[in-house]
Amino acid sequence: MLNFNRSARRLPSSDALLSQVLERERSATLSELHALHWTICTDRGPVGFVSATDHSQTHRRCEFLIGFPEIQRAVAMEATQLAMEFLRNRVGVERLTAHFYPENTHAIKVATKFGFKQEGIMKGYFRNPDGTRSDLVIAGLLLTDELPALRWRMRQENRISAHTS
């Protein structure tokens, strides 16, 4: 969580309460929550999530978040690509914004592979529990027709790495 969202509310104290929160989120519509959440599953069960939050239909934009606790490069890349295409083609989103802590270089590097461009750093944006302040990196991506080509390139890379392993 320190790399993902330091200001997120604490998780509920029990699995039952967490299940209720997740069920409310799952059953809500985009217009109710201004967010969409996908739980990414493989044959091993849930492995991560992709979310689009702070959706604005007027401005055709949203914040984009991905979280995969274990490194599952191919699954994470494919899920992210599919979510981006869904947002563009079905929801009409034209711009994605992502926020990062500056020290989370892995997340910044992955976002760059998807075409996100760093747009700025908000200095001292968060106040930490110890009283220090943390910066926040902002990156953006205008959704274009280039997304399917990225998926094709990822599949080719996966085939190449599978054959060389």
Short description:
The protein has 165 residues and is α+β, with helices and mostly antiparallel strands.
Any overview of this molecule?
- Mean pLDDT is 79; it is low at 160-165.
- A six-stranded mixed β-sheet has the order 1-2-3-4-6-5, with helices on one face.
- It is built from five helices and six strands; from the N terminus they run ααβββαβαββα.
- α3 packs antiparallel against α5 (147-164).
- It starts with 14 loop residues before the first helix and ends with a helix.
- It has a single domain, classed as Gcn5-related N-acetyltransferase (GNAT) (Aminopeptidase, 3-Layer(aba) Sandwich), CATH 3.40.630.
- By secondary structure, the protein is α+β, with helices and mostly antiparallel strands.
List how many beta strands DSSP finds: 6
Please bin the fraction of helical residues: 25-40%
Order of helices and strands: HHEEEHEHEEH
Read across the widest sheet, the strand sequence of neighbours is 1-2-3-4-6-5
Give the CATH H-level superfamily. Gcn5-related N-acetyltransferase (GNAT)
Question: What is the third-level CATH name, the topology?
Answer: Aminopeptidase
Structural class by SSE content: alpha+beta
Q: Major sheet, described briefly?
A: 6 strands, mixed
Query: Mean pLDDT, rounded to whole units?
Result: 79
